[in-house]
């Protein structure tokens, strides 16, 4: 028998990811607008700041993963970062939304520094809060349930900011008042930090790290010599494009295809309902069926659901929203299955190579998420060029077909492409039994 994860741990973990995603989405939604319209920074310089920070993120994600893997403390391997990291993240979030009233050059230097520090502090929390899910239990099903709760919490956090943040901003002066953003940032950062620190205080690490620290060269082998993990990561890179492309194109889509920007709210509702439903039912499904086959089935069905509104329905909005919701549900399934398979990859690494490397594995996953977002924006940019798109142009057959393709067809293709690496993903039932036996024997039956 193994020690079950306590109910308060489950609640605090869900809350921690809810808080983290509130801050991430608040930053994603408003930072560019704040830089350009309230601080007076040119769009080109603002874009350069954000791109430069993203490039640095590509470097510091794996670095943070290796640092976490080397951490040894009386609180565990990942908990220490959840005790002080959220406070740093809260402070840098607030700093990014302050109008300092300095010269143009000084403002650019300061906001660049603040935004880069925000990215680093986000990574400081992001890697540990996901990696800790792999050490809270010795049972793979229990760990999968924790990942599900975390993903659901993240989706709820996204929904709260998407719907509620503009209400708070308007309550304190509206989108043209810098102080309104500052106050909203203070409120969100304070609440989010408290929820994330509570996660660090509440969770227990039941799989403790080895006393010896794995050298960096061997730690990197966690990925290079773990074939199932490499194949899974290729699939993750592709499947993450689906929501990235939809998020980047949905505003254009509702304006030029449906002719009503207010429909953006309904697209958001279909995303939230579909994703939460898909994520909620997945743990039960993967407890009865092979994870790889569930992943492949979700991709196949998700592709069909994505493509149907493009070929059927004649622009009927309720019809399209239903199938968007269904495709989002299958995206939710892939989200949970892939996260559960990442946890399995950690156990596989320990069985095959002798060390776990949770930090590096989960840091690589967050890097892939960021890379997918960058690729998604690039794909949308290429699409706009091919359509000869200009701001505020009249609706044409070309724009309607182009944005419909982005919303329906390209995600359907991505679903299908995601399946290809999975066909080569092989971990036999015998290996799975040996891995689970190794975990139970090595770490004992009780904590």
Task: Describe what you observe in this structure.
It comes from Evansella tamaricis. This is Glycoside-pentoside-hexuronide (GPH):cation symporter. The chain crosses the membrane at residues 12-35, 41-59, 80-100, 106-131, 152-172, 178-203, 229-247, 267-286, 293-313, 319-346, 367-386, 406-425. Keywords: Cell membrane, Membrane, Symport, Transmembrane, Transmembrane helix, Transport. It holds the Pfam family MFS_2. The protein is mainly α and 447 residues long. It has helices at residues 7-38, 43-70, 79-96, 104-131, 140-171, 178-202, 216-224, 227-256, 263-286, 291-311, 317-353, 358-386, 397-422, 429-443. It contains 14 helices and no strands. It starts with 6 loop residues before the first helix and ends with a helix. It is globular, with a radius of gyration of 22 Å. The model has no long low-confidence stretch (mean pLDDT 82). It has two domains: 1-206, MFS general substrate transporter like domains (Growth Hormone, Chain: A); 215-447, MFS general substrate transporter like domains (Growth Hormone, Chain: A, Up-down Bundle), CATH 1.20.1250.20.
SSE order and pairing:
Elements: H1 7-38, H2 43-70, H3 79-96, H4 104-131, H5 140-171, H6 178-202, H7 216-224, H8 227-256, H9 263-286, H10 291-311, H11 317-353, H12 358-386, H13 397-422, H14 429-443
Protein name: Glycoside-pentoside-hexuronide (GPH):cation symporter
Subcellular location: Cell membrane
Membrane topology: Multi-pass membrane protein
Salient structural properties:
447 residues, mainly alpha, Growth Hormone, Chain: A, 2 domains, 79% helix, globular, transmembrane, cell membrane, Na/Gal_symport, Glycoside-pentoside-hexuronide (GPH):cation symporter
């Amino acid at each position: 028998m193994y020690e079950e994860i306590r109910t308060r741990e489950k609640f605090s973990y869900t809350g921690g990811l809810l808080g983290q995603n509130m801050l991430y989405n608040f930053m994603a939604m408003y930072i560019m607008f704040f830089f350009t319209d309230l601080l007076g920074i040119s769009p080109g310089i603002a874009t350069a700041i954000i791109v430069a920070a993203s490039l640095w993120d590509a470097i510091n994600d794996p670095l943070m993963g290796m640092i976490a893997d080397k951490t040894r403390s009386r609180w565990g391997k990942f908990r220490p970062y959840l005790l002080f990291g959220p406070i740093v993240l809260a402070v840098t979030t607030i700093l990014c939304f302050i109008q300092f009233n300095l010269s143009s050059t000084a403002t650019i230097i300061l906001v660049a520094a603040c935004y880069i520090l925000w990215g680093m502090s986000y990574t400081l929390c992001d890697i540990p809060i996901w990696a800790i899910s792999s050490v809270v239990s010795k049972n793979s099903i229990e760990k999968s349930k924790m990942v599900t709760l975390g993903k659901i919490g993240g989706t709820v956090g996204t929904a709260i900011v998407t719907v509620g943040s503009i209400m708070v901003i308007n309550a304190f002066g509206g989108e043209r008042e810098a102080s309104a953003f500052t106050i909203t940032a203070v409120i969100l950062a304070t609440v989010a930090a408290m929820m994330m620190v509570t996660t660090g205080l509440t969770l227990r690490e039941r799989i403790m790290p080895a006393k010896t620290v794995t050298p960096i060269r061997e730690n990197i082998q966690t990925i290079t010599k773990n074939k199932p993990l490499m194949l899974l990561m290729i699939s993750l890179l592709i499947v993450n494009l689906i929501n990235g492309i939809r998020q980047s194109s949905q505003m254009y889509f509702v304006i030029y295809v449906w002719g009503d920007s207010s429909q953006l709210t309904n697209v958001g509702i279909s995303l939230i309902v579909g994703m939460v439903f898909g994520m909620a039912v997945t743990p039960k499904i993967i407890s009865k069926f092979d994870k790889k086959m569930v992943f492949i089935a979700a991709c196949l069905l998700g592709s069909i659901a994505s493509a149907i509104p493009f070929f059927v329905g004649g622009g009927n909005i309720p019809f399209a929203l239903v199938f968007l919701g269904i495709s989002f549900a299958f995206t939710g399934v892939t989200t949970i299955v892939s996260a559960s398979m990442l946890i399995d990859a950690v156990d596989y690494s320990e069985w095959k190579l002798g060390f776990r490397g949770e930090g590096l594995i989960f840091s690589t996953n967050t890097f892939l998420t960021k890379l997918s977002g960058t690729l998604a924006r690039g794909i949308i940019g290429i699409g706009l060029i091919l359509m000869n798109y200009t701001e505020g142009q009249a609706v044409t057959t070309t724009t309607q077909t182009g944005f419909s393709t982005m919303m329906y067809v390209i995600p359907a293709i991505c679903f299908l492409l995601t399946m290809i690496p999975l066909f080569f993903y092989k971990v036999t039932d015998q290996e799975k039994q040996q891995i689970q036996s190794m975990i139970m024997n090595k770490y004992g039956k009780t904590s």
